[in-house]
């Protein structure tokens, strides 16, 4: 009875979710995949606020494709928990990992190693944790 797609309109496929994550991570020095009610997510954001770093946040509980993105993050990073924090294209772990790197003095050097394309703030300002104006 005709052709149809098994993907609900507006819902990303696993491949699309993986591509979305890779695109966001490759265009932003710091990306936090988060949930608004998660205390560890707040911890990670606070660490980057403390060091004055600009970061992009994807709130999975507010994103149309949040569950699919979280599944793709599990495949990419080896963990399904949030936050999933990426710095300079690499997953550094979650909130406790981020805090520990900061306390060891290792986080700021990672942020400072970001390639120039990753430290230019997005023109639309979407998702930035810090005001870069």
Briefly characterize the structure:
The protein is α+β, with helices and mostly antiparallel strands. The protein has one domain (14-113): Glutaredoxin (3-Layer(aba) Sandwich), CATH 3.40.30.
Polypeptide structure, described:
- It is found in: Mitochondrion.
- Its main location: mitochondrion.
- Monomer; active form. Homodimer; inactive form. The homodimer is probably linked by 1 2Fe-2S cluster.
- Residues 30-92 form the Glutaredoxin domain.
- One of its GO terms (molecular function) is 2 iron, 2 sulfur cluster binding.
- The chain is α+β, with helices and mostly antiparallel strands and 133 residues long.
- It has a single domain, classed as 3-Layer(aba) Sandwich (Glutaredoxin), CATH 3.40.30.
- Helix content is 43%, strand content 13%.
- The protein is built from 6 helices and 4 strands; from the N terminus they run H-E-H-E-H-E-E-H-H-H.
- It has helices at residues 14-26, 39-51, 66-77, 95-103, 107-112, 116-119; strands at residues 30-34, 56-59, 84-87, 90-93.
- The protein has a 4-stranded mixed sheet with strand order 2-1-3-4, with helices on both faces.
- Strand 1, helix 2 (39-51) and strand 2 (56-59) form a beta-alpha-beta unit.
- Helix 1 packs across helix 3 (66-77) and helix 2 runs parallel beside helix 4.
- The termini are far apart.
- Mean pLDDT is 84; it is low at 1-9 and 119-128.
